[in-house]
TrEMBL record:
This is Saccharopine dehydrogenase NADP binding domain-containing protein. One of its GO terms (biological process) is glycolipid biosynthetic process. Pfam families: Sacchrp_dh_NADP. It comes from Ascobolus immersus RN42. Belongs to the saccharopine dehydrogenase family. GO terms for cellular component: plasma membrane. Residues 20-148 form the Saccharopine dehydrogenase NADP binding domain. It comes from the Eukaryota.
Length: 407
């Protein structure tokens, strides 16, 4: 557990000249976020871009300046010009796209916590995050720093749809809380960057038990709660799970995975639990739920099961959907983790990724533009009543790709 030195002076947020500092701005995801801010941020927002290479920073600034629709250009904050704590002390919020976080991000997080600067990032490296919360949660409480993990495709759709269901259930019947939430990835078309692959592989090199979060759903909640509060948390279901869809007009399939194709009733299809993706999103959803009980005006104790599934559309062949769902769930729960647990296999996977998507690169502009995904969360209350909420991202929302969502 870290403690703040009495010599550290924390600049009040109202006195800081920068609203947002973008750390790792010259990387693939950092450039996307920088472009989004340059094109969309109001003039009243003051922001800066930071990175290790002054040459790359200057090149990024030039590319932003050359954008015809740019309305708000950043200032430059090279990392070699000052200490990390001094650098982040100038900003109210730091957005970190440095990765893999397991290997490179801790000094930046610590600097933000010491400076009382809010921290947001996009990584899904749960073992690293659990370790960081154990180290710096107490210090963040002292300085007022807010740590918000995985603020991108992991895990905002899952977190926001679940929160929407909880708020709706509470407003409809305050004494009847949710007992179960199932979040379904109904459709997905897209790819991830080389850096995202590297982040996934890095946790296997750095941690002896990198997949503990699959079986410890409250891995991000425990560092913040007391042992008594942790022991009172509702047990969660983990492992392989397959569910047949029996209700009509509840879940919908998009067989062609294109943005404008019709949504088809998925009754007769099946749901396959999503392994590592489920584990990442579930850890964040349950942290949000657990922390909400600490607020004086919190919702009722969130004792509900949370699972996350991939949709297998219905088929004319009896039993095909459920068999496919089981094979999918088995593959993501058992096969992929086993492959990644072997150092030799990880090296082969990294070489393959580097060959087809070199370091520092990601999906093309056209692939991002054509990307599409659709999430749906279905909640049940104590009375057995269900309610669904969906969230999708497509071209009409400003770009369909996973990385457009990160921006």
């Amino acid at each position: 557990m870290s403690e703040i030195s009495e010599k550290v002076h924390i600049t009040p947020l109202a006195e800081r000249p920068i609203d947002i500092i973008l750390l790792g701005a010259t990387g693939f995801t950092g450039q996307i976020i920088a472009k989004h801010l340059a094109l969309n941020a109001p003039l009243s927002l003051k922001w800066s871009i930071s990175g290790r290479s002054t040459t790359k920073l200057a090149a990024l600034f030039s590319s932003l300046k050359a954008e015809p629709a740019a309305v708000n250009l950043p200032s430059l904050a090279p990392l070699d010009s000052t200490s990390l704590t001094t650098l982040v002390s100038t900003a109210r919020v730091a957005i970190c796209t440095i990765g893999p976080a397991t290997l490179h991000a801790e000094p930046f997080l610590r600097a933000c916590v010491e400076a009382g600067t809010a921290w947001l990032d996009l990584n899904g490296e749960m073992p690293w995050y659990a370790e960081m919360l154990r180290k710096y949660d107490s210090l963040a409480r002292q300085t007022g720093a807010i740590i918000i993990p995985t603020c991108g495709f992991d895990s905002i759709p899952s977190d926001l749809t679940t929160l929407t269901l909880r708020l709706h259930a509470h407003s409809t019947s305050p004494t009847t809380p949710l007992t179960r939430v199932s979040t379904i990835l109904e459709s997905l078309k897209g790819s991830i960057s080389n850096g995202s692959y590297s982040s996934i592989l890095s946790i296997f090199d750095a941690f002896p038990n990198p997949l503990d979060f699959l079986h410890k759903p409250y891995i991000l909640s425990s560092p913040t709660l007391t042992s008594e509060q942790t022991s009172s948390l509702h047990p969660q279901r983990t492992g392989i799970s397959v569910q047949k869809i029996t209700d009509p007009d509840l879940i919908f399939a998009n067989k062609t995975r294109t943005q404008d194709s019709p949504q088809l009733d998925a009754k007769g299809g099946a749901l396959a639990s999503m392994g590592m993706i489920e584990g990442i999103n579930r850890s964040v959803v349950l942290r949000t739920s657990a922390l909400s009980t600490l607020h004086p005006t919190s919702l009722p104790q969130p004792e509900f099961d949370y699972r996350e599934y991939l949709l297998t559309p219905p088929s004319r062949c009896p039993g095909k959907a459920k068999a496919t769902a089981y094979a999918t769930s088995f593959f993501v729960h058992r096969v992929i983790p086993r492959l990644m647990s072997t150092r030799f296999t990880r090296r082969l996977m990294q070489k393959g990724v580097n060959k087809f998507q070199p370091p520092g690169t990601g999906p093309s502009d056209s692939m991002q533009e054509e990307g599409y995904w659709r999430y749906r969360s279905v909640g049940e209350t104590e009375g057995g009543k269900g309610r669904g909420v969906w969230m999708d991202w497509r071209r009409g929302c400003g770009g369909g790709g996973l990385y457009s969502w990160d921006a």
